[in-house]
Write a structure and sequence with these properties.
transmembrane helix, 75% helix, mainly alpha, 306 residues, cobalamin biosynthesis, two-stranded antiparallel sheet, Cobalamin_biosynth_CobD/CbiB, single chain, cell membrane
């Protein structure tokens, strides 16, 4: 029950406070990773493995050791703070709502600026439907990375587990690109993130399916996810799009070039309503996870006292 209570406390903290406004730990970690890359970069997989290890392993071991050295209540509070820092539930709402609001007001320029803070594609050339698609995709995909994946690894391995997951996820976002610079150096970051996200992504896809149009979500997951580049983003976004009854994917501009992507979902073209529905889907999913965690906690506690 300590783990379940910590999950509840961290989610409530995130809903109340949002992400830390100053000195976010992941920002500091990003600077550390940049320093390690600057001084240890070589276009070899071994170099990337070493850089990943030096970036991630010491903080995780330090946290695990610290929790063992302090009283139980301090260890619990530390776990809550680590999970709170790893969550980005409220942040997703704060980034996506302005996009939806701008689209409702027919202010395409403001919508493009707002969605530009969520995605890496070239937003200046997007029309209203493409802006809505970008924001909806970001909510669905980051629902796994910044919410359900974090909750999964915290439930499984506690604070060190969620720290490992979020640091690995951050390095994937920094190094996991198929570019000449990162094709070899970033190989480890990309593959490790794929492994850590394999189960959470599929649980997230199941969650989206349960919270929306179940049959459409499962059908899109089965038929469309294998066509997507990422083995984990595919199930998450295909199931999410099917659950929402909206069409996502398709061509998107990156670095001045339009890249063809498979279609995800089915139904109507995305709009402001799609973004809000994606946020609602995420809220329902978080509620389900917390209820399931509470039920499991009571069952396990009852089994221990039996």
């Amino acid at each position: 029950m300590n783990t379940v209570c910590a999950m509840l406390a961290a989610v409530l903290l995130d809903a109340w406070l949002g992400e830390p406004r100053r000195a976010h730990p992941l920002v500091g970690f990003g600077r550390l990773a940049q320093w390690i890359e600057k001084h240890g970069y070589a276009n070899r997989r071994a170099s990337g493995v070493l850089a990943w290890t030096l970036s991630v392993v010491p903080p995780v071991l330090l946290l695990g050791g610290l929790q063992r050295c302090v009283p139980a209540w301090i260890s619990w509070c530390l776990a809550v703070l680590v999970l709170y820092a790893a969550l980005g539930w409220r942040s997703l709402h704060e980034h996506a709502r302005p996009v939806a609001d701008a689209l409702v007001m027919d202010d395409l320029a403001a919508a493009r600026r707002a969605v530009g803070r969520m995605v890496s594609r070239d937003t200046a050339v997007l029309n209203a439907s493409q802006v809505a698609a970008a924001a909806t995709e970001s909510v669905l995909e980051n629902g796994n990375d910044a919410v359900f994946g974090a909750l999964f690894w915290f439930a499984l391995l506690g604070a060190p587990g969620v720290l490992l997951y979020r640091l690995a996820n951050t390095l994937d976002a920094m190094w996991g690109y198929r570019t000449p610079r990162y094709a070899q150096f970033g190989w480890a970051a990309a593959r490790i993130d794929d492994v850590l996200n394999f189960l959470p992504a599929r649980l997230t896809a199941c969650t989206y399916a349960c919270c929306g149009h179940v049959e459409a979500a499962l059908r899109c997951w089965r038929t469309q996810a294998p066509q997507w580049d990422s083995p984990n983003a595919g199930p998450v976004m295909a199931a999410g799009a099917g659950a929402l009854g909206v069409r996502l994917g398709g061509a998107a501009p990156y670095h001045g070039v339009w890249e063809e992507r498979p279609q995800l979902g089915e139904g109507d073209a995305p709009d402001a309503h799609s973004i809000r529905c994606a946020l609602r889907l995420l809220r329902r999913g978080v509620l389900i996870w917390l209820i399931v965690a509470l039920l499991l906690g009571f069952v396990l506690r009852g089994g221990m006292h039996a």
